[in-house]
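Researcher: I'd like a structural prediction for the single chain below. Treat it as a standalone chain; there are no partners to consider.
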Amino acid sequence: MTTHKRLISFLFVILTGCLAVSYTVPASAKTESSEPELLANGEKLRVEYARMLSEIEDQIATELPTIDPQKKAVFETARAELNALKKPGENDAEAVHKAYLAAKPLAEAKALDNARPLLAAVAALLASDTLDSKLMKAAILRHGTPAGLAEFAQQSDAHKALLDKLFADEALMKQVLVSGGANGGEYGEAMQVYTAILEASELARKPGILQRLALGTALHQPWLDENNKGSVNGIVFADHRNPDGQVARYLHYEQAYLAKELDPQFKDFNAWECRFITNDPYTNKELTWVRSMLRQFRPDHITNPDQKWRYTRIVKSDLPYCSTRHDDTLGLPQQQALALGGICGRRAFFGRFVARAFGIPSRRSTQTGHAAMNRWTPDGWVVNFGGWWSFNWCGPQCGLDFYLDSQSRTHEELYMQVLRAQWIGDALGQEDVSLRHYGQGGGFWDGLAFYKKRAVVEAANLEQEVADAELAALSAEEGRLLGESDKVLGDGEIKEIKIPEEERKIVVAKDGTITVPAVACTSPKNNTDKVAFLNSWDGGMQLHYQRMGIRPELLKYTVVAPAAGKYELTLNVCTVSSEFPVIARLNRRTLVNTKLPYTKGSWQRTAPEILELREGRNTLQLTCRAPNRGVSIKDFQLKPVK
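Model: Treating it as a single chain, here is the predicted structure.
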């Protein structure tokens, strides 16, 4: 199959999902969403910034190569034909839908084909950094707007100095713009936050992940004071503001990184990826808790080799889909979420929260009648808990646009050519290609930038198309149902684990106390759909009795008592939900119901229950009534009653 036909086939699959979402057009990044209030000095600054932008526009116009008018006209005609295609309504005839689905990928492929000769003609220009200084200033001025930047700079000489510093530092300007620019065009506020973090952390001033984290934090949430941020210019990428403040949030992650509590891949993230780590709406206290909880309760989720579900698998395994309730007696908001379960929103929020807590970039993903999430993996960004990219959006940006951008960013040198084409469009005052309507609208240069992304991704990711097509083939409803269920594509295989004999060793202390490792059961002897034998995070092993599974399962143990008599039975358990019973049966006759405590993800012993053992061999069976919540068990003890 040719590349052209392969692209058409793939686009035909993904575009079926585009019909499920009704989009609205966001404000242009070059248009102020509200008119800033300027004082006299602010008006002077606005005029000065506008003059700077106008001068750059004139200079850039003289530096650009002559574009073949015929090739340009053909390209613009192809784009116009694509833009003219109107998505059918829900009540339109099936034939109308089929005609649209057949025409759309052909029109997109035609536009890309007609972009290629133009991209080749300007390749030398886009590969050169000669104009970068002027182009980057123009991009910041256009995105932040002269009035928006003046609104910040008019507050004090120190405020203006922050913008002056940015414009004078070409390396910083480049890092800022490569990282996506300041959210809402608030470059002054971003510099204010970035400077505050650098003042608070010596490590953030040095090249490396912590500097990139500091910048990403400042760019994505540039408002130090929510009540005094003035107007917001340009497109705002919606997300919650973290409750602890940007400096405290950065310092939290610095400490977690130094303590080696974050994912090993965290150290390699760029500043753009870091934008999606620190912008969580939950507290630093909750972030600390969830890392500790997962290490104790489900350490297997931390080391899951399927990186699409590393960390976030806890949602599928232990946060049931049910009505969303709140109970402050159960602790912090996210402790309540895990304890009580909830519908799609709560599950997606918890998934983002736990991934970000371990330093994995994640973002919200709104879908029609559903909430999902997007997250980073070594193989690219993916969707958890919902349908494919064509069904989701975040703030002003549709999922397909984000996915394309994230893929093209992995080719850094080629992505610089994308940015330069965008910056030329900024310098000339041309409109951006729509973020919400995939590939539609926009001026000539931003249109070229979009199709440069398409060309880069097509050339490098043909193998990825096969994997994408399987997910893209799911309907919006199938994706929603998969997100709301506890199933994961590929589930079903139960992997065996080897349990070393030293981990199964039962110990009898001098006082007669018998300590039985949870993994020392005689049945089952390996993983089942209800029981998982896990390597503990701090060494040794533990057993997890899962929420999921077809039926209750008996855990059988053989205990040799040194003497007959009464013993106190306690279990060392880790739970994340309200109290529920465990049934203990001794020697097939004595039944004891013991309550598992709500430990919030920490290890704790159950209240003692009295059992009467006979000297020598005893059989102890443990099980949970269905439906049950998950519990991890480290060991149980039988202590002689004096």
